Amino acid sequence: MDKMIARFPDQLEEALQIAAQVTLRKHTAPIRSVLISGLGGSGIGGNFVQDLTGAECKVPVLVNKGYQAPRWVNKHTLAICSSYSGNTEETLSTFAQLLPTGAKIVCVASGGKLLELGRQHGMDCVQVPAGWSSPRACLGYSVVAQLAVLHSAKLIKGAVFRQIKAAKKLLVKDQADIRKRAQKLAGFLGEKTPVLYCADQIEAVAIRWRQQINENAKMLCWHHVVPEMNHNELVGWRNNRPDVAVVWLRNRDDFERTALRMNINKEIVEHYTNTSIEVFSKGKSLAEKLFYLVHLGDWLSLYLAQIREIDPVEIRVIDYLKAELGKV
């Protein structure tokens, strides 16, 4: 896992090279919506695409993480099915339901049934490199490939790819400092349950941190976004919780009212826990800030696993679940 995390900056560079080759065949109808279907390490890419394109894309981008395709999907929908292995059963189920809708379907995978079916039906496919033992370590491929699909469909401009290239340079330049910050943060969190809060604009980062802490460190964790958290979860902070550690994921240019809310929230929460820390991003563009925090969180999850003396790659309980599902 440490080698896979260390390769993340280079993965972004490689993903950009793949993206430059993505060209979609013309669709029969104008695109008015985007559906991204994927789960786990493949699905999180869709969340980042949502965050990265929210201020630019003129059609709605929605992420589907289940077995069923929404009924609103039609010939005006661009549907991206993303599965690193190509064998995620929920994504394959959604793919089958998308076929009769007339949607423009694009498959993103390293191989497996999804790529096979996509090519069988004459669909556009983006093949990412195989051979990574943990799909969650392939976030760069997933995000950049999906952005390339949107760009080829003329739904976003190419500026985001320049921002990702700058993000790669930032990660290389700050690598030692990022790892040092992650180690310090891991020691700060210790064996406590992490609680992650962020601005709604970067929820993908909090989801990524939660998932990586779950899978790599084998720890429970939860997250919420501001301002929505102020309308419900904030009231749950009523009793002392020495068992939790709160991390505030922030950008220095968060929306002014959201930043003010987070300042007040932090003051309130710290009445009930002594373990609370702010983590600020680095970078100029949103892409740089997102990928900086991603890389920091990935290293954090690894160091938490080391503190707990467990294997970050092992996911036996998921393997057991798949085996039991396979019996039915």
Notes on the structure:
Helix content is 49%, strand content 15%. The chain has 328 residues and is α/β, with parallel strands linked by helices. The strands form two sheets. Strands 2-1-3-4-5 form a five-stranded parallel sheet, sandwiched between helices. β8, α11 and β9 form a beta-alpha-beta unit. α2 (8-19) runs parallel beside α6 (139-152) and α2 packs antiparallel against α7 (159-173). The longest helix has 23 residues, at 286-308. The two termini are 32 Å apart.
Secondary structure topology:
Elements: H1 2-6, H2 8-19, E1 33-37, H3 40-53, E2 61-64, E3 77-82, H4 89-98, E4 104-109, H5 112-120, E5 124-127, H6 139-152, H7 159-173, H8 175-189, E6 193-199, H9 203-217, E7 222-226, H10 233-236, E8 244-250, H11 256-269, E9 276-280, H12 286-308, H13 316-326
Parallel strand pairs: 1-2, 1-3, 3-4, 4-5, 6-7, 6-8, 8-9
Helix pairs in contact: 2-6, 2-7, 3-6, 3-9, 7-12, 8-12, 9-12
Q: How would you sum up the major sheet?
A: 5 strands, parallel
Strand content: 5-15%
Q: Do you know the CATH topology of the largest domain?
A: Rossmann fold
CATH superfamily of the largest domain: Glucose-6-phosphate isomerase like protein, domain 1
In the sheet with the most strands, the strands line up as: 2-1-3-4-5
In short:
The chain has 13 helices and 9 strands.
For this entry, give a set of tags.
328 residues, alpha/beta, Rossmann fold, 5-stranded parallel β-sheet, 4-stranded parallel β-sheet, 13 helices, 9 strands, 15% strand, globular
